[in-house]
Amino acid sequence: MAYEIMAPLDGKVFQLNIKAGDKLEEDEEILAIEAMKMETPIFTPCDGTVREVRVKEGDEVAENDVLAIIDEEHIEV
Amino acid sequence: MKPYFEKMSEFGHALKKGRIKSTEENLNSIKKIEEDVADEVNRVKLAGFPEEKINARGHMTVWQRLEYLVDPGTWCPLQTLYNPMNNSEGTTNVIDGVGKISGKWAVIIGFDNKVMAGAWLPGQSENILRVTDLSKRLNIPLVWLVNCSGAKLTEQEKFYANRRGAGTPFFRHAELEQLGIPVLAGIYGTNPAGGGYQSISPTILFAHKDCNIAVGGVGIVSGMAPKGEFNLEAAEEIIEKAKQFRAKPPGSVNIHYDETGFFRYVFEDETGVLDGLKDYMKDMPAYPPKFFRVTEPKKPRFPIDDLYRLIPLNPKRVYDFDEVLARLVDSSEHMEFRPDYGPEVYAGLCKIDGFLVACLGNRQQYLGRNYPEYADYPGMGGKLYRQGLIKMNEFVTLCGRDRIPVIWLQDSSGLDVGDAAEKAELLGLAQGLVYSIQQTDVPMMMLLLRKGTASAHYLMGGPTANRHNAFTLGTAASEIYVMHGETAAVATYSRRLVKEKDAGRPLEPIIEKMNKLAREYHDKSRPLFCAKNGLVDEIVPLCDLRKYLVAFAGAAYQNPKSICPQHHMILPRIIKG
Question: Do residues A63 and A49 lie in contact, with contact meaning Cβ atoms separated by under 8 Å?
Fold first, then answer.
């Protein structure tokens, strides 16, 4: 399953910690958005791999913009 | 009231691997600051003569006395780094805190006999008044370890007189006694003049056999007849008198036990004095904990060390307040008050060590486009808006009605500003909250998680609410200022910048001043500055915070001045609906 990571608020991409292909662990911080004098960190909802990053540091984003896509890691049992 | 309190709603989540990975740097940064604070605490502990030297004279140090007196694991030090007058000794020369003696909570304070034999120093009376205020607010005994050589005479002008000077604690002792709060004193060493009043003003005096207390000591007696100047003849006379009184200082046990009877008990050994205090503490007025507990004490469901990963040191970072609270309260359970209203404020009932407490805090997240409802801009947690202020007013008022102690967890950048906020009555609601707190006569404490800023620092149970606030704790992430330093620099120099620009002059000198002011704000808002100047009562490692909450709850419920039966409480019913 792929997760679209969306901006929870309007603001500027402040800190981008990921690039395509990165392996992530659930709840890892992937970037932060600066708005209203505060920095809102965004976390990945699952273990997985970064398929695509659609923003770069300094980009202005609007609420619900897709910031990145994460492919969830499937664990075979 | 089992259905309400035995099992409340669980909240909080265990940290995931990814969060742990992302927060390593934050954890290390906080621990580094905590180490710096611990170094300063250690410096205070080592002030004055070394322990070995005091022990060689046959005495215990104040720290050794405290360790012997206080039940293991219960000591919660306060004001350790308080030194507002920047004394060269690095201390106000009293050591104080809250702890249990013989199973009962007490406020405990002792003179540091390693430093000038426990002399009065600048800032000390203010320290003592914090302690007497604490005893009054919590309605628990005050226990003194007196060992006070009197005033440091070379700096007397800084503390002897004035409205809150060195004599004021004697009036506070009398006030506590009038309120029915006992003041017990173990007395050691030589206690002349001010030290004499430190000794005589408590309720029951437990004396060591070698102690003495007196209206005046050797120094005063020797110099009682001023002659206008000193010369050789006068010096010889002083030497003779001093020798005479040194051999037999005034006010020793043979006077104040055998003659006046001021000393209720005299003990051969230093530990005997402490055993006497312990024995008396067993009988101090106190309800057994079961009288007020709503459930058995339980630990939070999540490790307290998670706080190092949940509270960002960076003051601009938002975080999940509820996750922080879930690491502090019993079973990580709560009953939240009006969760659908005033989303920037958390208000709820929780349990600490089985006792019911009320918690209020600042939620930090983005609040969405439709909040605050009165403005065309979105809200951000950490700020206070109309609904949050109304919610706190209501909640605090109901806590007063139900006699529930209040714990404020503050991290606020202030109130919303602008005409929309004025129209929404924020100024009136803010002062309304001051009124609500003032008429809510229950013990409160404040934990400054991070920012204490603007009027929010006053409004949310800060130390300025000093009839209510028992104590205020800071963390490694705490910072206190009227506004951020850069904001202050802009407010101070913006017009000047315009003027210089219009005049065609270079802007660099003004920019330099702005940067200097911003730096000063930073330096004068850090945890160590706050502790030294009394803006907080102690900087506490995150892993020890719950210990202080347990002390607060236990002390607040030990002997409360009024009671609301659990089955008469209205707040839990309002929450349940």
Answer: no
* Cross-chain Cβ contact A63/B369 below 8 Å: yes
pLDDT of residue B236: 86
Write the DSSP assignment of B38-80 as a string of letters. Answer: HHHHHHHHT-SS-HHHHHHTT---HHHHHHHHSPTT--EEEST
Are B98 and B68 spatial neighbours (Cβ–Cβ below 8 Å)? no
Helix (H/G/I), strand (E/B), else coil: B437 = helix
Cα distances from B159 to residues B126, B131, B133, B446, B455, in angstroms, run 9, 17, 19, 28, 30
Q: Global pTM? A: 0.96
Q: Which chain A residues are within 8 Å of B18, Cβ to Cβ?
A: 24-29, 43-44, 47
For B195, left (φ over 0), alpha (ψ -120 to 50), or beta?
alpha
Q: What residues of chain A score a pLDDT lower than 70? A: 75-77
Q: How far apart are CA B577 and CA B573, in angstroms?
A: 6
What pLDDT is recorded for position A77?
A: 53
Of A25, A39, A44, the CB nearest to B318: A39
Cα distance between residue A15 and residue A11, in whole Å: 12
Torsion of CA B557, B563, B568, B569, to 10 degrees: -50
**Cα torsion B257, B261, B262, B265: sign:** positive
Contacts A12 to B, Cβ<8 Å: none
- β B9-10/B469-474 pair status: unpaired
Domain boundaries, chain A: 12-47+57-62
Between chains, do B22 and A44 touch, taking CB under 8 Å as contact? no
Interface of A with B (CB under 8 A): 8-9, 17, 24-29, 32, 34-41, 43-44, 47, 63
Q: Which two tokens stand for residue B298?
A: 């339980």
pLDDT score of B220 more than 90? no
Q: Which residue in the set B19, B314, B382 is minimally distant from A43, CB to CB?
A: B19
Return the pLDDT at B228. 84
Candidate from B18, B317, B378 with C-beta closest to A39: B317
- Residue ranges with strand state E in B226-285: 265-267
The three-state secondary structure class of B183 is: strand
Question: How far apart are the C-alpha atoms of B533 and B49, rounded to whole Å?
Answer: 25
ipTM (interface predicted TM)? 0.95
Report how far residue A9's alpha carbon sits from residue B380's, in angstroms, rounded to the nearest whole number: 10
Q: In which band, very low, low, confident or very high, does the pLDDT at B238 lie, cut at 50, 70 and 90?
A: confident
Percentage of chain B beyond pLDDT 90 is 93
Compute the distance between CA of residue B470 and CA of residue B503 in angstroms, rounded to an integer.
54
Q: Which residues of B touch A32 (CB under 8 A)?
A: 317
How far apart are alpha carbons B313 and B318 in whole angstroms?
A: 10
Q: Which amino acid belongs to residue B327?
A: R
